[in-house]
Structures are given as C-alpha cells and as structure tokens.
Fold:
Amino acid sequence: MAGFVTILCFLESHSYRWCVYEAFDRAGLATPAKQCLYIPGPYKGFLFFWRFDSFSGALETTMAITDQVEQLIEASIETLGYELVGVEYIQGGPDPILRIYIDAEQGISIEDCERVSHQVSGILDVEEPIRSAYLLEVSSPGFDRPLFKSRDFERFAGVEAKITMKLPVNGRRNFRGVLQGFENGEILIEVDGEVYALPLAKLGKARLVA
Structure:
C-alpha cells in the first residue's frame, strides 16, 4: 500500500532552525491535507497532516542506509549550492526518520529546505535505499551542530563538543570537552585536561555545545 505525504514546517525559537519533514510514497504522490494544527509555545508552526500508509520491506542497518543515502544525494545537494552536513536514520518510533542536515554560507531558510527536500525525494524515490515507510526531514544543523566526518572534527578544533560512543573507550561512552582535531582515524577531545583518542568507526553521535 502506498503512503502519502506528511509535511511539518516550524521555526524552533531556541535554535532558529527551519525544518521540513516529508514522508512520501514510492510514486511521490500526495493527497489534500486532512487537518491543519497550529503548534503554540517555544515550537511554533503549522502541522499539515496527510494520510500515510506503511510499505512492506526488509529491515536495513542504520549505517548502511546513511552511507548509501549520502552517496546518492551529496553531489545533487552540492550542485544546488548547499553543503551536505550529514545523514541520520533514526528508528524506534511509529515511522523511522531519515534526517538530512544541510548548510550554506548565508544560512538555511525554509525555502532552502523545501528545495532540497524535493530534489532528494526524487532521487530516493528512484533508488529506493529504504524499502519501508519513513519520514524525510531536511534541516539546518542549528547551533548544536551535529558532527559526522573527519573534516568536521578538524574544522571545529578548539570548540566544545559532546560525544557519545557506541562502545566504551577507557571505560566510558560519554565525553564533553574541547575538540583537538582528528588523526589516524580518531577524534581527539580534551576532557578535564586529558586528551582522549576516540575511533570514528565507533562514534555514536557528536554535537557542538550550543
């Protein structure tokens, strides 16, 4: 059964980050909105609901999906004039979320997110790296910028960050300190005067401290 489009547009007042969420079907078809809800408080915006039905398909590993999606969309996003910051695939809710972070020198607006969303959805529709229902989110990285690649840790050397590893390193998984760069496949971070070398291959998640 094909799904239909769901889009959520809102302005997050604390990080001033525009997001566009889009769940789309294999044919890229949408039906008229069934409901519109205004969200008050610190997260202000309009939520538009469309019917969305599940797809059948095999489960893919998170890492394989993010790597494949990145390879499929990076060149196209760069052609549009944006930087692909990184890709996350988050499972555990009613529908998994494929989250794509983009950036540009002039910053990111909702129009930028919409433009990339339409471009990316067309590619994913054809290539089908995920064969089950999911939500596509295109977003700016915000002040608490996520870090994915070696170049991120080199670029933000000297900046405070929070890192969570998939597996313990020296008996701990969580680190908060000042990035010291990247060498030999390892993230260097100084915590309380001690420099830790964390294997990028075992990275769970990392973000700058806003």
User: Anything to note?
Assistant: The helical segments are 62-79, 110-127, 150-155.
